Amino acid sequence: MAELQTALDENAWWFILSEGKLVALDKGDFIPFGNVNELPFPEGATANKRLLGQYKDQPCYLVEVEGSLDVGLGGYVTLRSFLGRIDDLLFDMAGRAFQIALFYKTHQFCGQCGQKMQPINWEVAMKCYHCQHRTYPRVSPCIIVAIRKNKQILLALHNRHLKENYPVYTTLAGFTEAGETLEACVAREVFEEVGIKVKNIRYVSSQPWPFPHSLMMGFIADYDSGEIKVDPHELIEANWYHANDLPVIPRHGTIARKLIEKTLKRCR
Ligand SMILES: [Zn+2]
Questions:
Q1: pLDDT (tens digit, 9 = 90+) per residue, 128-152?
Q2: Distance (Å, rounded) from C-alpha 171 to C-alpha 260?
Q3: Where in the chain is the domain with CATH 3.90.79.20?
Q4: 102 alpha carbon to ligand 1 midpoint, in Å?
Q5: In the chain, where does the domain assigned CATH 3.90.79.10 lie?
Q6: According to the model, what pLDDT value does residue 198 have?
Q7: What's the topology of domain 140-265?
Q8: In terms of Cα–Cα distance, which of 154, 155, 151, 149 is closest to 268?
Q9: How far is the CA of 134 from the centre of ligand 1 (A)?
C-alpha cells in the first residue's frame, strides 16, 4: 500500500475516516467518488492517502483526518449504516478502510521487543527494524451457522444484541480457536451455546465483518440430537421456529440473513 503519486485528474473512491465515522456525501447516501479537486473537501485534506485497492477499476483511498472536515452537503456516518444499502463489494472496501486504519493505529510498537515499528511500503504490514518482527492486519475467523430441524429453524436472542439495542433473533456464531477446524468449531459453538448436537455441516459462503476485524464463515447444519439448553452468558433464549411464524430476524446484507433464508427454503 504505497503512497501513490497520482494524476490530479484521477477519479477515485475516497474513504475518509474521522473519529470512527466515514464521510458520506449527499445526505449521507454515497461514498465520495471522483476527482478530488471537484469534491467538496478542503485543500490538502487528502494529502495523506493510502491505496486500499480497486473498486470497479478505480482506485480506492483511505484518508484519516482529525476532527471534523467540512464536507459541504455531506456528513459523517457509521460503517454499519451502509450495511445492505450499498453494493456488497463497496461495503467490503469501506470495511477494509476501517480495518487498515485500526491496524496502523494499534501496531505502532513491536509486540516482541517494544521498539517503534515502521510501515512497509510494498505491502500492508509493519516491521520492527530492531528485532525484525513483522506484523499484518489481524483477521479473526468466526463461524456462523443456521440449524434446521425438520421444518423448523433454530433462532436465538443474543445478550450482546440486546445490549446494542438490536433485539433480533438470529443464527449462532463464535470465534474459531487456535488449532481448530471450522467444522469442529461449528459443532463446539452450537453445543456450548444451545446444548444440541448437529450433523451435515456444510459451508455456504463468507462475509468480512469489520466490527472490528472478523471474517464470518457461514455454514448450514441439521439437528442431530439433544434438547435446547442455552448458555446464559451468551444467549437470552433460543427456540425452533416455522417459516410462517418468525420473530424479527437480521437485516438484508448480513450473512446471518442469507443463511436463515437458505435454511427456510429447505424447511418448505
Ligand atoms: Zn521488535
A1: 999 999 999 999 999 999 999 999 9
A2: 7
A3: 11-105
A4: 20
A5: 140-265
A6: 98
A7: Nucleoside Triphosphate Pyrophosphohydrolase (3.90.79)
A8: 151
A9: 8
What spacing in Å lies between the alpha carbon of 61 and ligand 1's midpoint? 29
E strand intervals along the chain:
11-18, 21-24, 33-35, 49-55, 58-64, 75-77, 118-119, 126-127, 134-135, 140-149, 152-158, 169-170, 172-175, 197-209, 214-225, 235-242
Give residue 27's pLDDT. 61
Distance (angstroms) between ligand 1 centre and the Cα of 142 equals 29
The grid coordinates of residue 151 equal 421444518
N-terminal to C-terminal alpha carbon distance within the chain: 48
What nine digits make up the cell of 50? 493510502
Q: Count of residues for the chain? A: 268
Q: What is the pLDDT of residue 108?
A: 97
The CATH class, in words, for 11-105 is alpha beta
pLDDT at site 4? 47
Coil vs helix vs strand at 21 = strand
Name the stretches of the chain with pLDDT < 50.
1-5
Amino acid at position 117, single letter:
M
For the chain, give the percent of residues with pLDDT over 70: 93
pLDDT of residue 236: 95
Q: What is the pLDDT of residue 29?
A: 66
pLDDT for the residue numbered 37: 81
Distance 124 CA to ligand 1 centre (A): 17
Burial of residue 60 (number of CB atoms within 10 Å: 0-12, 13-18, 19+)? buried
Provide the residue type at 202 as one letter: R
Query: Residue 127 C-alpha to ligand 1 middle, in angstroms?
Result: 8
Give the predicted TM-score (pTM) of the model.
Answer: 0.87
